[in-house]
Every structure is written in C-alpha cells, then in structure tokens.
C-alpha cells in the first residue's frame, strides 16, 4: 500500500487518500484490525434501530471466528448482544443454556483461539456439529467466514 501511494503520488502529487491499509506513519488509520468487525456491529445496530430494536438482548449466531467474526462477536457482546453459537473451521460451539447464560464469553474464546490457532477444544461452551450452526435458533445470523477454495485439482 505504501508502494501504491508512492507511485500514485509520483503522477498526481502527494495523495494520501488514494488507498487504505497504508502504514500509520504514511497516513494510515489506527484501528484497522477491528474496522470490519466494528462495521458489522454498527451496521447491525443501524438495521435493528430501523425496526425499533437494538443489539442489547438479541441472540446472535456467528459463523467464522477470524478477524471479522471475532471482532464482531466481541463488540456485539460489549453492546449487550448474546452470542449463543460460534463456528470456526475447526469446530462449533453453543452456549445458550447451562455454563454461561449470557452466551459465549467472546474474550475467553478469543484468547483460546490465539493460543490454540482455532476454536477446537474450547471448553467454555458445548461443542456442536459445525453445519448445525446454520439452523440454531437466533435473532441474527452473522456470516464472517472465509471460503477456502482448492486452487487446482
Ligand atoms: N478482514 C477484513 O478487513 C475484511 C474486509 C472485508 C471483507 N472481509 C471478508 O470477511 C470474511 C472473513 O474475513 P477475515 O478477515 O475474518 O478472515 P480470517 O481468515 O481472519 O477468518 C476466516 C475464518 O473463517 C473460518 N472458516 C473457514 N471456513 C469455515 C467454515 N466452513 N465454517 C466456519 N468457519 C470457517 C476460519 O477458521 C477463520 O477463522 C471474508 O469473506 C473476507 O473476504 C474481510
């Protein structure tokens, strides 16, 4: 991105607005890691507001717990949303009842995934079949996974 900024500026004069993802010291923005997940949270809140509701008290299922999904889950939880189920490529978890009535503790799931490179083995919720996440009861389903494709057969 620094290279693109540099090349563009060679032709058009210094143009820091030309591209996102620049290094901070070249005019890049802080908070990029969280930006997309934060956008999911703001967009969801705006949609709910249009229907006279808010994130607080709604029950969410999140498919995909990478950069976008984990930030969305954390920020939605902070707004009072209840994360009832989460899936990653290595597994899925439900926590509607039982251990934690407030839903999945996204902070501990995030710490777990950083340490174990995936959600598999997380013991703060009940493991479920990954595909079943699509039919779990919820108010809002948030799709945040990254399709893995075969590059060549
Ligand atoms: N990161 C961004 O700023 C950004 C911006 C715009 C759009 N997106 C889009 O958001 C989506 C997620 O991106 P990301 O940056 O979080 O990627 P990521 O690689 O950080 O996370 C993707 C996650 O999806 C999970 N996953 C893969 N297959 C799955 C499956 N079948 N079921 C459940 N989980 C599965 C992986 O375990 C991984 O945790 C992508 O489609 C991406 O193109 C991301």
Automatic annotation (TrEMBL):
Similarity field: Belongs to the Glu/Leu/Phe/Val dehydrogenases family.
Enzyme class: oxidoreductase
Keyword Oxidoreductase appears in the UniProt entry: yes
Signal peptide limits: none
EC number, UniProt record: 1.4.1.3
Ranges where the Glutamate/phenylalanine/leucine/valine/L-tryptophan dehydrogenase C-terminal domain occurs: 29-153
Record-level Gene Ontology MF annotations: glutamate dehydrogenase (NAD+) activity
GO biological process: L-glutamate catabolic process
Reactions it catalyzes: L-glutamate + NADP(+) + H2O = 2-oxoglutarate + NH4(+) + NADPH + H(+); L-glutamate + NAD(+) + H2O = 2-oxoglutarate + NH4(+) + NADH + H(+)
Keywords attached to this entry: Oxidoreductase
Domain of life per record: Eukaryota
A single GO cellular-component term on record: mitochondrion
Protein name (Swiss-Prot/TrEMBL): glutamate dehydrogenase [NAD(P)(+)]
Keyword Oxidoreductase: yes
């Amino acid at each position: 991105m620094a290279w693109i900024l540099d090349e563009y500026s060679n032709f058009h004069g210094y143009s820091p607005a030309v591209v996102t993802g620049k290094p901070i010291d070249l005019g890049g923005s802080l908070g990029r890691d969280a930006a997309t997940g934060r956008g999911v949270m703001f967009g969801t809140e705006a949609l709910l507001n249009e229907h006279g509701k808010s994130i607080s008290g709604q029950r969410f299922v999140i498919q995909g717990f990478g950069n976008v999904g984990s930030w969305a889950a954390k920020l939605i939880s902070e707004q009072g949303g209840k994360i009832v189920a989460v899936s990653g490529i290595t597994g899925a978890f439900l926590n509607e009842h039982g251990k934690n009535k407030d839903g999945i503790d996204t902070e501990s799931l995030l710490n777990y995934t950083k340490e174990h490179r995936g959600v598999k083995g997380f013991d703060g919720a009940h493991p479920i079949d990954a595909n079943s996440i699509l039919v779990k009861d919820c108010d809002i389903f948030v799709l945040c996974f990254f399709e893995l494709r075969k590059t060549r057969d």
